[in-house]
Every structure is written in C-alpha cells, then in structure tokens.
Amino acid sequence: MILNPWPEKPLFYASFPSITDPTAAPEGKEAGVFLIPLAPDIEDTDEIREKYFMLLLQRLKDLTDQDLTDAVLFKESYCVKDFKKDYNSYKGNAYGLANTLLQTHVLRPKLKSKKLKNMYFTGQLTVPGPGVPPSIISGKIVSGLIKKHHK
Ligand SMILES: Cc1cc2nc3c(=O)[nH]c(=O)nc-3n(C[C@H](O)[C@H](O)[C@H](O)COP(=O)(O)OP(=O)(O)OC[C@H]3O[C@@H](n4cnc5c(N)ncnc54)[C@H](O)[C@@H]3O)c2cc1C
Fold it and tell me: Looking at the whole model, is its pTM more than 0.90?
C-alpha cells in the first residue's frame, strides 16, 4: 500500500438530495451526501473516516453556520477499502483510469475491440472519458460506429 497523505484541509462536495426528492429521506428529515476527493490507495481505517467526517462537519459549520454534529441520526461511509472489496477496483479508486496525458482523448482504450470483430465498448473507461455526460456521448458515438460497420 502506498501511504499517501490525507489532506490537511479536505475539500468536499455536499449534496442534499431530499431537498428535491422527498423519497430520499423520511418526512421532516434530510439526507446529505458528502464526498471528499482522495489519493488512490490511501490508508483507510474507521478511525480516519470518523476523523474526516468530523472535520467535514466542522468545515460545513464554518462555511454555512449550520451545525449538523448532533443532528446525525444515521451515517454510512464508503472509501478505498470498499471500492477494492466490492469492485476489485485498482488501488480502490472510484473514477477508473487517471486523466494522465497518455490516457486522454484518442489515447484512451478504443470503442471498437482490436481482437473481436463485433465487440464494442462504451462508458467512462473509453472515449471520450469519465463523467455522466461523456459516458452518454460514448454510447451515442458507439451506436454510430455500429451502424457504420454493420449496415
Ligand atoms: C463518487 C463519484 C462521484 C461522481 N460524481 C460525478 C459528478 O458529479 N458528475 C459527473 O458527471 N460524473 C460523476 N462521477 C462519474 C460518473 O458517475 C461516471 O463517469 C459514470 O457514471 C460512468 O458511467 P458508465 O455507464 O460508464 O459506468 P457505470 O455507471 O459504472 O455503469 C457500469 C455498470 O455496469 C455494471 N457492471 C460492471 N461489471 C459488470 C458485469 N461483469 N456484468 C454486468 N454488469 C456489470 C455495474 O454494476 C454498473 O451498473 C462520479 C463518480 C463517482 C464514483
């Protein structure tokens, strides 16, 4: 395991799906989803997760003046160890291929298999790349390719 450092001041995304989707939480309650971007294969223990959850709540309080510390009824976390266990994910990463120069744009794995004539790939691990919009575009491009090659 590479022991990458955890960030001193973690950045995070915050999303409260229950604000627009009432089925995301029981009536009168809110559901919050927080995401801290981390280095791959970082040390992952229950103690570290708890420490960062508290840091995150403190940061949220500093930024919004909302203290959620005593309002948490249920929480669940998902980190490097879970990505490895559930998805056999390389270094426990969530995003697939890193966006390095040699894995970008046309240098990403191809949409059409080089080995099997009628095999095509789509989604974030191929062209154009990660994210929901590019994954949808990938499906569109590959459907065009299939039409072109299999009239
Ligand atoms: C924590 C997190 C936050 C993100 N935030 C954003 C964001 O804010 N905006 C954004 O645009 N993108 C975001 N992304 C990236 C985005 O979610 C992905 O790029 C996108 O969902 C990839 O779509 P996909 O269809 O290629 O793959 P996936 O959505 O991963 O779909 C692949 C499907 O194939 C299934 N599968 C895998 N193996 C098999 C098998 N052998 N047999 C059958 N089924 C199989 C999987 O179960 C899964 O359902 C985020 C990703 C993560 C992990």
Answer: no
